[in-house]
Amino acid sequence: MKTFILENIYMSDMSAPSVYSTDRFPTFESAMEEAHKQFKEEAKTYRKSYGADNITTEECYRDLYIKGPDFMDWWTVVEVPTAEEEDE
Predict the structure, then answer these.
(1) Angle at alpha carbon of residue 26, lines to 22 and 30, rounded to 5°
(2) pLDDT digits (tens, 9 = 90+) for 60-81
(3) Strand locations in 1-87, DSSP E?
(4) CA-based diameter of the chain, in Å?
(5) What DSSP designation does 26 have?
């Protein structure tokens, strides 16, 4: 059985990348569903704070990015082997 971890990472021009949250999910699809939910909520917040013209978004297979004038906030899904898989 596989486990998928959704990581939310934030970086600004004043800080190094930091992992702000990690959540476990049983499937890749459920992790990506939650990533999209968080991504959409944060994109709205950033657009209100910075103005829509100053925010860009990008979606890749396992990654979602929000880029602003002085920061990047992104979500990525990582597949983690479980102990049962390592024993095989």
Answers:
(1) 75
(2) 999 999 999 999 999 999 999 8
(3) 2-12, 18-25, 56-59, 63-67, 71-81
(4) 51
(5) S
